[in-house]
Amino acid sequence: MANCLAGHARALNGHIINTIEWVLSELMRHPQVMKKVQKELEMLHPVAPLLIPHAANEDCTVNGFHIQKASRVIINVWAIGRDPRAWTDAEKFIPESFVGSNIDVRGNHFELMPFGSGRRRCPGIQLGLTVVQLMVAQLVHCFDWEHPNSMLPNDWI
Ligand code: HEM
Predict the structure, then answer these.
(1) pLDDT digit string (tens) for 64-84?
(2) Where are the beta strands (DSSP E) in 19-118?
């Protein structure tokens, strides 16, 4: 059983790495697509900016808003991530603000829900976090990334 699980995990990781390699190869072959992806990522940091649509099981009131049974509910985590009522300097990239903070990404704090929250939150959260941390750590450890030519940081926006 343990072997079977380890094999499955290896295969899954292989799929992830293969996919990442193919994506990067194709992006290098198509610089205009790479630019488009980079621009889009810069604008939409959350992987799923609107989460997956859900439906209300029953009538309820959230924060003074009445939500009728069977309404389709779409959570805009992109907007929540930029809400000045939830974040200081909401438009700025300050990862240090999480040092010593009790806000996590696992759906326990509604200011930050990159994996959703509740019963239908992302079941791949642990794999997602591990792969992203590993990839980013490797890429940043091995290379000094910089803008090409004379491009300025604000040229992205
Ligand atoms: C950094 C990586 C990932 C992010 C940011 C992410 C984000 C999300 C989000 C926002 C949802 C919707 C949750 C909601 O609507 O409440 C979701 C659902 C889901 N994710 Fe992920 N995900 C990631 C990686 C993965 C991985 C690696 C897997 C599988 C191996 C996975 C499988 C799923 C599945 C099956 C659902 C649907 C769950 C349901 O509807 O009950 N995700 N994910």
Answers:
(1) 999 999 999 999 998 998 999
(2) 54-55, 60-62, 65-67, 72-73
Q: Cα 34 to chain center, whole Å? A: 18
Domain with 102 in it? 46-156
| Residue numbering of the annotated binding site for heme | 122
Alpha carbon dihedral 9, 105, 52, 139, in 10-degree steps, equals -60
Tell me, yes or no, whether 36 lies in a domain.
no
d(CA 81, CA 153): 21
How far is the centre of ligand 1, averaged over its atoms, from the C-alpha of 106 (Å)?
Answer: 11
- Residue 2 reports pLDDT greater than 60: no
User: Does this model's pTM top 0.90?
Assistant: no
Distance 15 CA to ligand 1 centre (A): 16
